[in-house]
Write a structure and sequence with these properties.
The complex is a heterodimer of chains A (about 625) and B (about 130).
Chain A: E1 8-13, E2 18-23, H1 26-32, H2 35-46, E3 60-63, E4 78-83, E5 90-95, H3 99-106, E6 110-114, E7 121-126, E8 129-134, H4 143-154, E9 159-162, H5 165-168, E10 176-178, E11 182-184, H6 189-195, E12 198-204, H7 214-230, H8 232-236, H9 246-251, H10 273-279, E13 281-285, E14 295-302, E15 305-310, H11 314-322, H12 329-342, H13 346-361, H14 367-370, H15 379-391, H16 395-399, H17 403-410, E16 420-421, E17 424-425, H18 435-443, H19 456-460, H20 467-472, H21 488-506, H22 511-514, H23 521-531, H24 537-558, H25 572-575, H26 590-604, H27 614-619, H28 623-632
Parallel strand pairs in A: 1-6, 7-12
Antiparallel strand pairs in A: 1-2, 3-4, 3-6, 4-5, 7-8, 9-10, 9-12, 10-11, 13-14, 14-15, 16-17
Helix pairs in contact in A: 1-2, 2-21, 2-24, 7-23, 11-12, 11-13, 12-15, 18-21, 18-26, 21-24, 21-26
Chain B: E1 2-5, H1 15-25, E2 36-40, E3 46-50, H2 57-61, E4 67-70, E5 73-76, H3 86-90, H4 113-117, E6 123-126
Antiparallel strand pairs in B: 1-6, 2-3, 4-5
The chains are: A alpha+beta (about 625), B alpha+beta (about 130).
Chain lengths: ~625, ~130
């Protein structure tokens, strides 16, 4: 008996309108646990090498983990995996809300979607009833509008994921949306859904998930809630959620501003967590089983428009409030709403818009090409660009390709301030005086995303500490010393990468651990009671290393000439000292960047060019990758 | 004692619903929960908790007198119930449920697990008073 899991994998071939079920393979469960682990293994094994991300052969996987849907704090995660339209390499992106638990109650740990529907369609799942249904009436609708319409049509007990116009129009950073404000935002998973003519998935489940020792697991789950709620961060962090870090990132100078020209925004008090509470918030909005709801749902009014919106989260504040310099929380929230409705990742969109504005200022993009003048601190300009991008109209067709391809096409030096790694736009932490965090961005398997590792505490505070402690320290704005580039940076990054991939494999949110300091061992105890397989946290961590080698191997196989040169930051971040603010004058040299990468590759057991070696792959339990690499001449 | 809903505290996490299903049916299966959370999105953007307030409407309408007050909670007598489900139709809060694989309706028995596990103090025990269940 497989405890903790629903036990079944649901496959959908949209081209042939076929749906079938398979038992969850034991080897997958034992070696990859769930969530991100399942995604990594299935993508490597099943995607025909060399396909295009928007080809029907690409897979869209939705995977839960063994903890998803169980009684413990924040077990609501679902991981979407695919070959990325943004990078051409490995991709996953996750969301909270209620979708994953509902998948498991319906009886499915994993959905695997391949092919392309002939006409716009949606996938309907009501326990054992699985149907590919027409979605013509929903096609073209915004994500929020479509979700509301699906719920009105099917019933409030259905959990729905949708794409917006950006996904339909194959914008390379289109997201998957859910629960009126939650997104699998990154890596272009929404574009893959759009390429399959799949507007939405609606799921309702009325089954139960088997538990090895329900009595003890329930008691331990209740204890876990109590312990989370006893942490100082329960009352210190929860009220503002992720937005609460905005003051700190400005005070220590890591807040991306004016397309990463600097790392401090003078108006940050007008776009911080407190501003959300004072001026936007209606309710806290939590994901499934979460005691610390970081979602703040509210209403915003601006001269450009008004809307209900969840957020803004910190990342959206950083990329629209900092990078595009929108002046008020209301403006940031309106840009947030528009991205959500259009189905665009706010992080990538904020980077792309910042790049376009700087290109216009430098004469690289003309008024005629854009269709109007654009500037920082101009909400109308941002609204204009977002609408153009989602529809791929005019300048939007170039910008929809993402900042890497757009800069390659425009040239004229715009590549040096196109802020991305591997084609994925950089999220909300400026790293010119943060070598560990810089290395985390450079080596993140999906491209420049902070959720693979967050190690700013090492760079700024000098020692590991959780974010709550940093916020509570009420740091004053002062000049920051030059951060130390050392071999330890690689250790910190790898430790954080492993911790986070394990949470993602378990199907549980990491924020109670990250932000409140809730101890990891509790998750191991819950895993053991739920699955009946006794493991310590260190035991569980073994799969993380396997995941990291495997996702790297996927990108080595899928991206021609993959290697160290794709782990480098744009020129701005290694050549231009920060213009002003607490980190004025700091920059990490290219030589130091290469040194950091060398330390990291060495610690990982990868070659000088960042390719996993045969010995490393064998040690990690990946002989099938060795065989594949040998056959393809990739060593 | 009775359960009181403080709607403004609810963040929609459904911890209460999962706890209810585990406590009463020994299943990790919130669809069996005996209370409902209504998520009102995108507008007005809030949650409404629908609890049994033990109003007795189910008992008053039961043709078999199979629903009786015991220690403050109306309880369905499975031997007397014929499964007509009239009580499900008349419940003003829509918290009398017909479950698949069960011939008799199910309802809140005031076990209080929802209040005990809610991490937001959105469901609380109070001395008998006017409930905010609306």
């Amino acid at each position: 008996m497989l405890y903790g899991y629903a036990g079944t994998l649901l496959r959908v071939d949209l081209s042939n309108e076929a749906v079938w079920r398979e038992p969850l393979p034991d080897s997958l469960v034992q070696n990859f646990t769930g969530g991100r682990g399942f995604v990594a293994k299935m993508l490597y094994d099943e995607i025909p090498p060399g396909i295009g991300p928007l080809d029907p052969e690409n897979m869209l996987i939705a995977a839960t983990g063994p903890l998803t849907g169980h009684f413990l704090p924040a077990s609501g995660k679902t991981h979407f995996g695919t070959k990325s339209p943004a990078t051409g390499g490995y991709a996953d992106s996750n969301l909270g809300g209620h979708f994953g638990p509902q998948m498991k109650y319906a009886g499915y740990d994993v959905l695997v979607i391949t092919g392309k529907a002939e006409h716009p369609s949606y996938l309907f799942i009501n326990d054992d009833t699985v149907e590919i249904r027409p979605a013509a009436e929903y096609w073209g609708q915004g994500s929020i509008t479509a979700e509301k319409n699906f719920k009105d049509h099917l019933g409030d007990d259905y959990q729905v994921i949708t794409i917006g116009p950006a996904g339909e129009n194959l914008v390379r950073y289109a997201c998957i949306s859910h629960d009126f404000g939650r997104q699998a935002g990154r890596t272009g998973v929404g574009a893959v859904m759009g390429s399959k003519n799949l507007k939405a998935i609606a799921v309702r489940g009325t089954g139960s998930i088997p538990v090895a020792d329900l009595k003890k697991a329930y008691a331990k789950g209740k204890e876990a809630y109590q312990k989370v709620m006893a942490k100082p961060g329960f009352e210190g962090w929860t009220p503002e959620g992720t937005a609460g870090i905005t003051d700190w990132t400005n005070e220590v100078g890591v807040f991306p501003t004016r397309n990463f020209q600097t790392s401090h925004a003078g108006h940050y008090k007008n776009i911080n967590g407190k501003a959300i509470l004072d001026r936007l918030k209606i309710t806290d909005k939590g994901c499934f089983s979460c005691p610390t709801p970081c979602g703040k749902y509210g209403h915003t009014q601006t001269p450009s428009g008004s809307a209900y919106v969840e957020g803004p989260e910190y990342e959206t504040i950083a990329l629209f409030g900092g990078n595009c310099v929108l002046k008020t929380i209301e403006e940031v929230a309106y840009a947030n709403y528009l991205c959500d409705e259009l189905g665009i990742d706010t992080i990538s969109a904020g980077v792309v818009a910042g790049w376009a504005i700087e290109c216009f200022q430098k004469g690289i993009l003309s008024r005629d090409e854009i269709g109007r003048e654009i500037d920082f601190s101009d909400l109308d300009a941002v609204v204009y660009l977002l609408n153009k991008i989602a529809k791929r109209e005019g300048i939007g067709n170039l910008l929809a390709e993402g900042v890497k391809i757009a800069a390659e096409r425009k040239g004229k030096g715009s590549e040096r301030f196109a802020i991305h790694v591997k084609g994925l736009e950089w999220s909300g932490y400026e790293c010119r005086n943060a070598p560990s965090m810089m290395l985390a961005y450079l080596t993140a398997d999906v491209g420049a995303h902070h959720n693979r590792a967050w190690v700013l505490g090492h760079d700024i505070a000098g020692a590991w500490t959780n974010v709550h402690d940093l916020i509570a320290s009420e740091t004053e704005i002062e000049a920051q010393p030059k951060a130390v580039v050392s071999e330890h940076c690689a250790e910190y990054v790898i430790a954080s990468q492993h911790k986070r991939s394990l949470f993602d494999a378990l199907g549980n949110c990491r924020l109670q651990m990250m932000e409140l300091g809730f101890e990891e061992e509790h998750y191991a105890e819950l895993f053991s009671l739920i699955t009946g397989v006794t493991k310590t946290w260190d035991d569980l961590l073994e799969i993380s290393e396997r995941i990291w080698h495997l996702t790297r191997a996927f990108s080595v196989r899928e991206i021609d000439g993959f290697g160290r040169h794709l782990d480098l930051p744009p020129a701005r971040l290694t050549e231009d000292p920060i213009a002003d603010g607490p980190n004025q004058g700091h920059v990490i040299s290219r030589e130091n960047i290469h040194q950091l990468l060398t330390w990291y590759y060495s610690a990982r057991g990868w070659s000088e060019d960042g390719i996993p070696t045969k010995e490393t792959l064998l040690q990690a339990g990946l002989p099938e990758v060795v065989t594949d690499f040998e056959a393809r001449g990739l060593f | 004692m009775e359960l009181k809903a403080i709607h403004a505290n609810c963040s929609g996490c459904s911890t209460c619903r999962l706890a209810c299903a585990i406590e009463n049916f020994r299943e990790v299966n919130p669809s069996k929960s005996l209370l409902r959370i209504e998520a009102r999105f995108p507008a007005p953007g809030d949650y409404r908790i629908h609890l049994c307030n033990q109003c007795g409407e189910c008992a008053d309408n039961c043709p078999e007198d199979a629903i009786r007050l015991q220690n403050g909670a109306y309880i369905v007598d499975p031997d007397a119930c014929t499964g007509c489900m009239i009580c499900v139709e008349v419940c003003p809060q829509h918290v009398m449920f017909a479950q698949k694989n069960s011939d008799i309706p199910v309802k809140c028995n005031l076990c209080g697990e929802c209040a005990q596990t809610c991490p937001r103090n959105a469901i609380v025990w109070v001395e008998n008073q006017e409930s905010e269940v609306a």
